[in-house]
Specification:
CATH topology of the domain at 21-207: TIM Barrel
Radius of gyration: 22 Å
Largest sheet: 8 strands, parallel, barrel
Number of strands: 17
Helix content: 25-40%
Shape: globular
Strand content: 15-25%
Length: 386
């Protein structure tokens, strides 16, 4: 009898813990037209539409925005609490940020243009996706005060969004949202002053993917290719280079005084590949000749690579990471599958993160979204019983 009571107490406490509402956020690209019927709205909590750009100090609309955002808003009939946000910037759309945040007047102009865009398309908020490139690399403008100005922009945006929420009587969970993408690069964390900026943010979407080994030549350019896990949960014993991992990134943010509940783990629904990798350790962390340029969405990997005769499906026990290797042509592919997703959702729950963000939605065939959603469902038995 006493044993049954103890079990019931443990179970009831796990339900209270499990009632936390984890975010399941999907990125979906506006590069092509979107059909709402192809999106399983009940399995996600937020949609981040990518990307609006910055032009002449204001948010700039894309050619598909009016059609696509209408389609995404239709999903609220199926899931009324679904939040649809516009993501501004990205790798190719961040060039105008520096100018837009340079002064009080420019920040006010930029923030007002974002609020107007949100109202026009009946959205629920905005994600700032500024790819901060040091010294203006890759065509992005540069100002030594960019990082300070970014914090000032977020303060203005927070005030504008809160004022608009009040004007529309949007309260508590229905208030306009402000999020920001956080890079996995340690130097970015300190440059961006997120230990201050997070106070303005509802959550931070971490880029805990696209990890890569960089070997720079005398000109500071990466000229040598090395294979690697690109979204591994923990460091691999095979990695004698940079020891990058999701866990390392999360810990750096937490140690930078950013609450774990505001951190949303990034999960890639695509892989990274290399050609003609050395065969030691089945190609893992080895020299390679070139990158695979074919489509490496999860759908493509599952169809054209997994379970093919020449490809070994391998598991890195320490890194909790999946990869493929073809010892005939040296092709090495790093990617997430159902097993890695289960490991990552367990990590999110144990470390009390805010949830997970993945992209692009259309790169999956349902195989990854299902374990992601199930792994973050509100009620689960306590870890001690597994």
């Amino acid at each position: 009898m006493r044993f049954i009571v103890i079990i019931l107490l443990i179970f009831s406490s796990s339900l209270v813990y499990g009632q936390r509402h984890y975010k399941v956020i999907a990125y979906i690209s506006g590069d092509s037209l979107i059909t709402s019927s192809n999106i399983e709205a009940k399995k996600i909590t937020h949609l981040h539409y990518t990307f609006a750009t910055v032009s002449k100090g204001e948010i700039a609309e894309g050619i598909n925005d009016s059609i696509n955002l209408l389609q995404l808003n239709r999903l609220k009939v199926i899931r009324p609490n679904l939040k649809v946000l516009i993501a501004v910037g990205g790798e190719n759309g961040s060039a105008g940020f520096s100018e837009a945040v340079a002064s009080d007047s420019s920040r006010l102009k930029f923030a007002q243009s974002i609020v107007s865009y949100i109202k026009k398309y009946q959205l629920d908020g905005v994600e700032i996706h500024w790819e901060l490139k040091p010294r203006g690399m890759f065509g992005n403008a540069f100002n030594p005060k960019d990082q300070e100005n970014l914090v000032l922009l977020l303060e203005v945006l927070r005030a504008k969004l809160d004022a608009q929420s009040k004007a529309e009587s949007r309260k508590k969970k229905n208030k306009y949202l402000l999020s920001m993408t956080g890079s996995s690069k340690r130097q970015y964390l300190f440059r961006s002053k997120l230990n201050v900026a997070h106070q303005c943010l509802d959550y931070i979407t971490l880029q805990t993917f696209d990890y890569k080994v960089q070997i720079l030549n005398a000109a500071g350019i990466s000229g040598t290719l090395v294979t690697c896990h690109h979204s591994n949960l923990y460091p691999s014993r095979t990695d004698s280079w940079m020891r990058l991992s999701v866990d390392k990134t999360v810990r750096e943010y937490v140690n930078h005084n950013i609450p774990s509940r505001k951190l949303v783990m990034g999960i890639a629904f695509y892989g990274k590949g290399w050609n003609n990798a050395y065969e030691d350790y089945n190609g893992l962390y080895q020299w390679a000749e070139s990158k695979v340029t074919d489509d490496l969405s999860y759908k493509s990997i599952a169809t054209h690579y997994v379970d093919q005769p020449d490809y070994q499906k391998l598991w890195d026990k320490q890194a909790k990471a999946r990869y493929l290797y073809n010892n005939k042509n040296g092709v090495f592919i790093s990617y997430d599958d159902k097993k890695t997703i289960r490991k990552k959702t367990l990590y999110i729950r144990r470390h009390r993160l805010g949830g997970a963000v993945f992209g692009d939605y259309r790169q999956d065939n349902g195989t990854l979204l299902n374990p992601l959603k199930n792994g973050l469902r509100y009620f689960r038995l306590p870890f001690i019983l597994f």
